[in-house]
Design goal:
116 residues, mainly beta, seven-stranded mixed sheet, 11 strands, 0% helix
């Protein structure tokens, strides 16, 4: 059993910053890639950022230059530093953790609201 605990969401003004965390626990031997997604009701889930076990990162064009993904392998935790937030960034943010031979595990999601 693998569980993901997300934290860091909330309300922030345009131009502000938030840092999301997602810690994996349970029966974990190793973790491959980790990623962050966001979803708005009525729209498709969007992949925002991905980081491999070796530290290689990829970003969606919508967040490139503003968001930074990182990981702490010792803590089985992935982070998403979000800067220069815009109202368009308002969504439920979800983390995804890949466990070899087991599959993908998802967090419950954390709400991020960017508004004045």
């Amino acid at each position: 059993q693998v569980q993901l605990m997300e934290s860091g969401g909330g309300l922030v003004q345009p131009g502000g910053s938030l840092r999301l965390s997602c810690a994996a626990s349970g029966s974990i031997v190793s973790i491959s890639a980790m990623g962050w997604y966001r979803q708005v009701p009525g729209k498709q889930r969007e992949l925002l950022a991905r980081i491999t076990s070796g530290g290689t990162t990829n970003y969606a064009n919508s967040v490139k230059g503003r968001f930074i993904i990182s990981r702490d392998n010792a803590k089985n935790t992935v982070y998403l530093q979000m800067n220069s937030l815009e109202p368009e960034d308002t969504a439920v943010y979800l983390c995804d953790v890949g466990v070899p031979y087991a599959g993908d595990y998802w967090g419950q999601g954390t709400q991020v609201t960017v508004a004045s």
